[in-house]
Amino acid sequence: MDASQPLNKKTPYKRRMTHKRRDQNRAAQKVYRAKWKQRLELLERQVDALQRHHPGSDYGFGA
Q1: Residue scoring higher pLDDT (57 or 26)
Q2: Which region is the signal sequence (predicted)?
Q3: Which run of H or of E encompasses 61?
């Protein structure tokens, strides 16, 4: 070991793992948002379909 290097020097390995975890979290968040966006779009289509079949009713959603 070289005397000029401190004993508790952080290794790049730890930083790489941090970046890997951050990338995994980012990918998981993207999937999560896409899933909820699809669910919201499905609900919006269902509401539109109900309103087309019953144009005078707001089904308690308010107008």
Answers
A1: 26
A2: none
A3: none
